[in-house]
Amino acid sequence: MSAPSSRSDQNFTFHLPRSSLKIAGIAFGVGILLFLVVWLNARRNNEFYRADPAQPQADTATLTPLPAPLPAGSGASEMPDARPEAVEQAPELVETAPAPPPQPIAEAAPAEPAPAPAPAAVAPSDQPVPLPGQSPAPDYPAAALRRGESGTVVVRVDVDANGVPLDVRLVQRSGSRDLDRAAQEAVRNWRFQPAQSNGQPMQGSLEIPFDFKPAQ
């Protein structure tokens, strides 16, 4: 009788359900899609950060060399002298007329003095006329001024052929004896242009009013 063998000759087979296979297939497909998405993003990022190729530099401007300096000589230039040659001209003789002799300076005639102004003439009249400067106004009596007296006095004066008063009398009184007396005394000292008839002086009469008013 043979001994029992220690190794088992039986094979075990594992069977997965179909639902598990579907899940595995979906997971595999999702993994592939994720891989593609990651790979495309990485390539795009590499192209974004890639430096642009250097632009070719513009051609350097060609510099024209300056002309060589002329050699220094003894100071003479090869250019022709542009200055015109001096033309000798014969001097011309110009006859000048002799200057006329100086004329004697006439002395200025002395200025004649201005004529003195003529005194104001008084027109002849058939009545005596008081002479300017010889007929002062009467003084206001101090007593009448203190009392505040005022009024109008009219005097009549008779003047002879020489212009001297002959008589002075009151024609209109002021109501103040002092004012009436002051008017009469003033006219007695006046001088007049006598009245005239046919160009001859004669005696005449004249009435003169005086208005006495104290200053305000």
TrEMBL record:
The keyword Secreted does not apply. SUPFAM superfamilies: TolA/TonB C-terminal domain (SSF74653). It is a single-pass membrane protein. This is Energy transducer TonB. Residues 194-203 have a biased composition (Polar residues). GO terms for molecular function: energy transducer activity. Residues 51-142, 191-216 are annotated as: Disordered. The keyword Transmembrane helix applies. The lineage of its organism: Bacteria, Pseudomonadati, Pseudomonadota, Gammaproteobacteria, Lysobacterales. It comes from the Bacteria. Residues 125-216 form the TonB C-terminal domain. The chain crosses the membrane at residues 20-40. It is found in: Cell inner membrane. GO terms for cellular component: plasma membrane protein complex. InterPro entries: TonB-dependent_transducer, TonB/TolA_C, TonB_C. Residues 127-139 have a biased composition (Pro residues). Keywords: Cell inner membrane, Cell membrane, Membrane, Protein transport, Transmembrane, Transmembrane helix, Transport. Belongs to the TonB family. GO terms for biological process: protein transport; transmembrane transport. It holds the Pfam family TonB_C.
